[in-house]
Design a protein that fits this description.
The chain is an alpha+beta fold. Helix content is 51%, strand content 20%. It folds into four domains: 3-50 and 142-245, Tetrahydropterin Synthase, Chain A (2-Layer Sandwich); 54-138, no CATH class; 247-289; 290-343, no CATH class. The strands form three sheets. The protein has a four-stranded antiparallel beta sheet. Mean pLDDT is 77; it is low at 1-40.
């Protein structure tokens, strides 16, 4: 239920180009909660390095030994000997001291109950409790948690089965509410995330889910915030990782995308043809008003046709008649073949 139970979990594995959640079987061996999480396909871990509790254990051991020795030393000074009663009293005092002095890590909040009722939230650092009367009910890890969850073969609004994997980042900001308002807040968040994901997929079409990921992330975050706020949990972000479509649907969507691209290409080609037509219309008006310009253009086109290839163009003698107005007499004779060109 607390952060220690969740700290040993991690995610691994891959499937169909995306990550698939695989809980740590060793950490959940023999645990009913672990089996339930594997059945639902959700997994939660603490973001960050694992922390060691060796310092807390060492502090308790030193405190026990110190109290035990102090009581035995007091008995030795008072009675001159150490009997069985002195040893029993020393053990009881040492146990009471250990049960009343506690240490909470920097990221931990400890819920303390007094005779079964909520009294306070202690930590981090050193804190005290009244032996027998007060109990440290739960240690809540306040670090960011990462929950991997998914929805397999969930039908969309257009009845297409999708496999969707997502990641949820959240943390506990109110340890009291997390411990007193819900039995297992970690499992509750996991199930709430899965339910919200399935509902969001069912309200949208397959194409909308595949294309509009950011909108799906925002919708999931809003729904989860409203649901888990009363549990003392804050949703930081929701990120959809993988959306796996059926192979048949992928082929259909690929054909649709290709057809859309061909449509755009044809539209662009038609727009280019329209622009060319308008330009040719303007050029026609210009050439209609000036025959000499049209003939010069014809000569330019003839020159361009043979410039690149270096070929030979056979020009009939009547061709020179079309340039009577724009060519000199000598040029006309050369073009017409009356005078050989000068070398």
């Amino acid at each position: 239920m607390g952060g220690k139970r969740n700290a040993g979990r991690h995610t691994a594995g891959a499937k169909a180009g995306g990550f698939r959640v695989v809980p740590d079987v060793a950490a959940d061996a023999g645990s009913g909660a672990g089996a339930a999480r594997r059945a639902t396909g959700a997994n939660t871990t603490i973001a960050g390095e694992r922390a060691s509790s060796a310092g807390v254990v060492l502090f308790s051991a030193v405190l026990f030994a110190l109290c035990f020795c102090i009581v035995l030393g007091a008995a030795q000074i008072a009675t001159g000997s150490i009997g069985v009663m002195a040893v029993v009293v020393a053990l009881v005092v040492a146990l009471l001291a250990v049960s009343s002095v506690h240490i909470a890590q920097q990221w931990e909040k400890v819920v303390v109950l007094r005779l079964g009722k909520f009294n306070r939230v202690s930590g981090p650092g050193l804190f005290w409790t009244i032996p027998v009367i007060e109990q440290n009910t739960m240690r809540v890890d306040g670090r960011v948690r990462v929950t991997s969850f998914g929805a397999e073969e969930t039908l969309t609004a257009d009845l297409v089965p999708l496999d969707v994997n997502a990641v949820l980042f959240w943390h506990v900001w109110d340890a009291k509410a997390a411990c007193t308002e819900v039995g297992d807040f970690t499992r509750a968040v996991e199930l709430a995330a899965q339910t919200a994901l399935r509902d969001a997929i069912g309200r949208a079409g397959a194409a909308e889910v595949a294309i509009r990921r950011e909108q799906l992330d925002r919708e999931l975050k809003r729904v989860l915030e409203e649901k888990v706020a009363q549990w003392g949990v804050t949703i930081l972000s929701v990120e959809v990782r993988d959306i796996l479509l059926p192979k048949e649907l992928q082929d259909v969507m690929s054909l649709e995308a290709q057809a859309e691209q061909r449509k755009k290409a044809r539209i662009i080609l038609m727009e280019a043809e329209q622009d060319i037509c308008e330009m040719m219309d303007d050029m026609g008006d210009t050439y209609a008003k000036n025959d000499a310009a049209l003939r010069l253009r014809a000569m330019h086109l003839l020159y361009e046709s043979v410039r690149e290839t270096g070929g030979t163009v056979v020009v009939p003698s009547s061709f020179s008649e079309g340039f009577g107005d724009v060519l000199g007499d000598n040029v006309k004779k050369v073009v017409g073949g009356e005078v050989p060109p000068a070398l």
